[in-house]
């Protein structure tokens, strides 16, 4: 086991070979006399965060973190944003991280405060979001006695974190937080928990900086094996039906420029998953769109019929593959991922490449140039077929028969009037899919959503976090009437802290995606999916009145001729949050669709082109 001095990297991505951001010298922890400064554990938390480059945190105080909050109010280096629910703190930290490539930080107290963070931690784990969760714990002398507000949060979160630390001594705080920061933001990003007892926060110890890290076995691989990259390049040069299957790892690795260069060099078709929207420009002629259950027909069938799939930072999720045993039956698989555990987990890789997407794509570009010196690739027929699919099956929608707004039109206009420099944070369900389909994404970090976990309630706090990280961008929360009711209390946080997000409620008065499945697979038995928030209902709650109560601008839109004016008013209003209640048809469905559990070859373009599905 080795011990090394903590490296100090750039503020965004720490690596084991560089210093931690903001730690210029050991003097950061020394007094004028050259001896280590004595700080309380709480002081050590704040000093460490400052030296790591953290400027914003989201949290909610409680008994086990009172010492930390007592010192928070006496400093100006770190902005603390008081949320109204700990889940909001977690999702806000996620939105902060996902929009800016910085580490998001959430703080909660012990017991229920910590367990309220669990959903956001699980969400960050599934979507590889660098989240640092700091929780208070009861006095170390009381641990294990079922003390008031005690919960074993380290044990609870062990399956959904990259690592969890329990700190019982103030002198251990700098190393624990610095280690957590390093772990959550290197290799495959993800959440790390640091649980600190109340007595550790209260007691004092010398503050030593930089601290020594003891992380035996943690050595993320970023540089891929050269022979594997050459093998992938040779396959690409010789393929007649290749596809780049691009996942969210490309965005986490900040590899979009490298991807664009490789794509244009090779002429290969690109598909971007739900987590990778914006990794490659939608406007680019090689982009086929999103694959998967609600992907474009061209993207779905490109993967299904390919002879070579190069997966870049993607994990062969079931929503992309459909029935895994029947996915891309004729394809050779090159799988690039920084996490070796993902390679071969779902689909065996013919050429496994472990490494950081940014480095691997750059190396693959060089190797491909060498490979085509002796081979002339020809994918003309492949493109003829794919372009035919694009022409025959473009993304579109039908106007609702009930005369109400088409939700697709609303979302499309939000994207068109806001533009590609905006940030769009979606909830989960039909509106999430429509936002992924009908907004055009031209840059990474512009699309935020809960992909792996599918967390209702993600949108509003994630948008709030994104606006804190990117205050000069327009930030939209595109939410459903069901999702919105789970975390809308964070509108109070936005109003009080001058975080002017825009919220578009796609109000179909129901849990829309569940209703769609009930319509298609359960003979239209809409069991407990009506929410009574929209057209022809009691409208409880009234979202416009709710917006007013929270100090936001509330607008209701019921017809197509009102849509643009409402969006333009929201874009012009920057002194408070805006909530637009778009009353849309509850019968609108998300198409195309691949039913769960069947081959992607059965992708259906629209309801009237669907077979009879007996079960999902």
From TrEMBL:
Pathway: Amino-acid biosynthesis; L-valine biosynthesis; L-valine from pyruvate: step 1/4; Amino-acid biosynthesis; L-isoleucine biosynthesis; L-isoleucine from 2-oxobutanoate: step 1/4
Feature: compositional bias, Low complexity: 23-34
Gene3D superfamilies: 3.40.50.970, TPP-binding domain (3.40.50.1220)
Pfam family, one: TPP_enzyme_N
Region (Disordered): 1-34
Catalytic activities: 2 pyruvate + H(+) = (2S)-2-acetolactate + CO2
An annotated GO BP: L-valine biosynthetic process
E.C. numbers: 2.2.1.6
Keyword Ribonucleoprotein: no
Single GO term (MF): acetolactate synthase activity
Family classification: Belongs to the TPP enzyme family.
Name of protein: Acetolactate synthase
Organism for this UniProt entry: Cryobacterium arcticum
Organism classification: Bacteria, Bacillati, Actinomycetota, Actinomycetes, Micrococcales
């Amino acid at each position: 086991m080795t011990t090394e001095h903590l490296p100090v990297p750039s503020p965004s991505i720490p690596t084991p070979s560089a210093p931690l951001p903001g730690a210029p010298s050991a003097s950061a922890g020394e007094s004028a006399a050259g001896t280590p400064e004595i700080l309380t554990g709480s002081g050590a938390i704040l000093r460490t965060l400052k030296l790591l480059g953290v400027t914003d945190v989201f949290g909610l105080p409680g008994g086990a973190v009172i010492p930390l909050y007592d010192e928070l109010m006496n400093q100006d280096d770190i902005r603390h944003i008081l949320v109204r629910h700990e889940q909001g703190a977690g999702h806000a930290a996620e939105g902060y991280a996902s929009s800016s490539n910085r580490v998001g930080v959430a703080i909660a107290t012990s017991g229920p405060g910590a367990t309220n963070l669990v959903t956001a931690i699980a969400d960050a784990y599934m979507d590889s979001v660098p989240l640092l969760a700091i929780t208070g714990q009861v006095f170390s002398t009381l641990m294990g006695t079922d003390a008031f507000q005690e919960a074993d949060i380290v044990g609870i979160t062990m399956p959904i974190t990259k690592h969890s630390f329990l700190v019982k001594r103030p002198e251990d705080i700098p190393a624990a937080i610095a280690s957590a920061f390093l772990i959550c933001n290197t290799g495959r990003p993800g959440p790390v928990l640091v649980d600190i007892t109340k007595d550790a926060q209260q007691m004092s110890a010398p503050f030593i900086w930089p601290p020594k890290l003891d992380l035996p076995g943690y050595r993320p691989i970023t540089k891929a094996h050269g022979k594997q990259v050459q093998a992938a390049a040779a396959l690409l040069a010789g393929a007649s039906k290749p596809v780049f299957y691009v996942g969210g790892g490309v965005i986490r690795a900040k590899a979009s420029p490298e991807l664009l260069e490789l794509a244009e060099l090779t002429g290969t078709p690109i598909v971007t998953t739900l987590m990778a929207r914006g990794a490659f420009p939608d406007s680019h002629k090689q982009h086929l769109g999103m694959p998967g259950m609600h992907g474009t027909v061209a993207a779905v069938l490109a993967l299904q019929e390919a002879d070579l799939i190069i997966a870049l930072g993607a994990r062969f999720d079931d929503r992309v593959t459909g029935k895994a045993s029947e996915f891309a039956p004729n394809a050779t698989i090159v799988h690039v991922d920084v996490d070796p555990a993902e390679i071969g987990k779902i689909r065996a890789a013919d050429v496994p490449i472990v490494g950081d997407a940014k480095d691997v794509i750059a190396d693959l570009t060089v190797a491909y140039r060498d490979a085509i010196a002796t081979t002339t690739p020809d994918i003309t027929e492949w493109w003829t077929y794919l372009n035919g699919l694009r022409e025959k099956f473009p993304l579109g929608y039908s106007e609702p028969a009930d005369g109400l707004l088409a939700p697709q039109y609303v979302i499309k206009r939000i994207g068109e009037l806001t533009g590609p420099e905006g940030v769009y944070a979606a909830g989960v369900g039909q509106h999430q899919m429509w936002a992924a389909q009908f907004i055009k994404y031209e840059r990474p970090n512009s699309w935020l959503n809960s992909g792996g976990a599918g967390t209702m309630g993600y949108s509003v706090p994630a948008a709030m976090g994104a606006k804190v990280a990117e205050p000069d961008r327009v930030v939209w929360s595109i939410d459903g009437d069901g999702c919105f009711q789970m975390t809308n209390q964070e509108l109070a946080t936005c109003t009080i802290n001058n975080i002017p997000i825009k919220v578009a409620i796609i109000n179909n008065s129901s849990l829309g995606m569940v209703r769609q499945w009930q319509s298609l697979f359960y003979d239209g038995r809409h069991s407990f999916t009506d929410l009574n928030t929209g057209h022809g209902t009691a409208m409880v709650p009234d979202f416009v009145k709710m917006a007013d109560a929270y100090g936001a601008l509330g607008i209701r839109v019921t017809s197509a001729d009102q849509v643009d004016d409402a969006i333009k008013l929201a874009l012009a209003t920057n002194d408070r949050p805006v909530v637009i209640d778009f009353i849309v048809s509850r019968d609108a469905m998300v198409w195309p669709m691949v039913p769960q559990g069947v081959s992607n070859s059965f992708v259906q373009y629209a309801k009237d082109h669907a077979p009879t599905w007996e079960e999902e």
